[in-house]
Amino acid sequence: MTTTLVWFRRDLRLHDNPALSAAAAAGAVLPVYIHAPDEESPWAPGGASRWWLHHSLAALQDQLARHRLPLLIATGTTTLETLRRLIRETGADAVAWNRLYDPAIIERDQQIKRILREEGIGAESHKGALLFEPWEIRKGDGGHYRTFTPFWRSLRRQASPDRPLPVPDMDAPAARPASTALDDLRLLPAIRWDRGFEPVWSPGEAGAWQRLTTFLEARLRGYDDRRDWPSVPGTSGLSPHLHFGEISPRQIWTATRDSPGGDGDDAESFLSEVAWREFGHHLLFHFPGMPDDPIDTRFRAFPWDPDGDTALAAWQAGQTGIPIVDAGMRELWQTGWMHNRLRMVVGSLLTKNLRVPWQRGEAWFWDTLVDADLANNSMGWQWIQGCGADAAPYFRVFNPVRQGERFDPDGAYVRQWVPELETLPAKHIHAPWQAPADVLRDARVTLGVTYPHPIVDLKASRQAALDAYQTIRNADA
Fold first, then answer.
1. What are the binding positions for FAD in this chain (predicted)?
2. Which end of the chain is more exposed for a tag (fewer CB within 10 A), N or C?
């Protein structure tokens, strides 16, 4: 009987797993997870991602056990050498996996496929992470898209994605090498900063499906109106489940279309957000330097503030004195997640008002987000900075006070995450420095004592950012 090693990576599910289905159709299946974070350098998983990975692998172990299959966890000097060792120990004939699109991983996987095939081992990769491959959606002239709207139109013109695959019937192999214990990977933090994650998240395929079901039943209708409001549960919260492959975009697409209202405007709006994730991978594939280098190369010469370390530290700690920004940064630290509207607001403050390089914000998100995804994180930060392929114009500097007043008008979100201001009237909660002294006194708010003064003047720093941008525009003229 043929035995295939199914190499799990960020596809930690049994449903709609093309590599697993192909292996099961060929013979016995041995599921394998190989821990090799150094091979993803310089973008090895951050602290929040490691927390999620630990719990997701535990959930996958439990799922496979119900099918009388082990999850073999392995480590080694390199993934290639580990696969070779497992092939020798099991007599496996083939290795199957689902493709990833991070530049370092593409290079590694191509080498592994070539060498294994040269050694007479079947090596096949499959499409399991995206609706369409980055090379499948092209412009009429054969080039790749640089802006989202025509990309989305082109994606919608494609044939609908295939229906998701069921869990296959799987036979276990005769040989089962010893497995490394999950705890030995030391993915969980030694100092338990992650306690706020557990009430919010349920990593694993079951948790992903429950979150999708809840969203479709209770939140899809009205999604387009509520998705920008951070104080209400208006979004799906599926991004970390998607990143770790606990649910596939094809499952989300099909379940959305099959749901009541699946052909309406709210569903279309939601699916366009799924397509933004696709677009991020499309860009990363065609611009592999995107995590570090601005696509608009003029920004290499942008005059950042050379004294930005203090501002960066205040931003990271949610101590900028600008309530909507501090609320977002504190939610991020406590839960590993932040509403997308606030990602734009806090990013704009960091890169434009404070003129701290976008790569430093990107690195902080990478370490603290449970949904930290190389394609979408780097695309988002380049969009915020105005230096990406489909970037917001640089002259658009988000005013965090106006954003708070528009999307958190009663201050509920700020009160939740910045309790120092919870008794401040809604009229003043987004700009406490403008509140009259008696209002601050009645609310027991003392700026500079119980809550910081703003670390930056929003109007003056906006103009300074625009002046700095003008220097690189002039240089390009």
1. 223, 235-239, 270, 371-373
2. C
